[in-house]
Design goal:
Layout: H1 11-18, E1 24-25, E2 28-29, H2 37-49, H3 58-73, H4 77-90, H5 95-112, H6 123-132, H7 139-147, H8 151-160, E3 166-167, E4 172-173
Antiparallel strand pairs: 1-2, 3-4
Helix pairs in contact: 2-3, 3-4, 6-7
Length: 185
């Protein structure tokens, strides 16, 4: 059971309380959400406890991208802005920001012995998320990062594994399928 304290702050809250009727439980409306359970849980945690995002690694991206999608969908603008600001640390719009990002990647590489590129999510995932939630400020650095991946790897990944979700050895998810040919011109 989850109760929303101030329903007027978002479309989600106000729409829930505007619907009364047979789907109530102890005077609280019951609703069915068609979103991923993890994303909804992370959204509610961020709404109640404030967002506590991590270090922009792949796991953090899964949390933040879910919060960003749902805060966009349900018009929770303040949370949406915080999620975009957090992602902008790893996908900055300035050269100074990019240099700071690369410093973090180099430190990760020295600490783990793993390529610093493995720290961050695929730039393809970021490009698709930015388009999905209308966050164009994330696009330039994501496209720049994408340009550093050898084109043959991108093509082989698409050709050899068009339906597989994730390529751990190549670090490329199948979201490549939604990048259009115009993106490579």
């Amino acid at each position: 059971m989850f109760s929303i304290g101030n329903p007027s702050n978002s479309v989600l809250g106000s729409s829930i309380y505007s619907k009364g009727g047979p789907n109530d439980f102890e005077n609280c409306p019951l609703i069915e959400l068609h979103d991923k359970a993890d994303d909804v849980g992370n959204l509610f945690v961020a709404l109640y406890d404030g967002p506590h995002f991590g270090n922009n690694d792949q796991d953090d991206f899964r949390v933040v991208s879910g919060v960003l999608r749902l805060s966009t969908k349900y018009l929770v603008d303040s949370l949406r802005e915080k999620a975009i600001a957090h992602l902008s640390i790893a996908w900055p719009s300035t050269l100074k920001g990019w240099d700071a990002r690369e410093d973090v990647a180099r430190a990760y590489e020295m600490e783990t012995g793993t390529s610093g590129a493995r720290l961050y999510p695929s730039p393809l995932a970021v490009i698709n998320l930015a388009r999905e939630v209308d966050a164009p400020t994330l696009l330039p650095s994501a496209f720049f990062d994408l340009s550093r991946i050898p084109f043959i790897i991108l093509l082989l990944t698409l050709r050899l594994h068009p339906h597989r979700y994730h390529q751990p050895h190549l670090h490329l998810p199948s979201v490549f399928l939604s990048v259009t040919p115009n993106d490579f011109v």
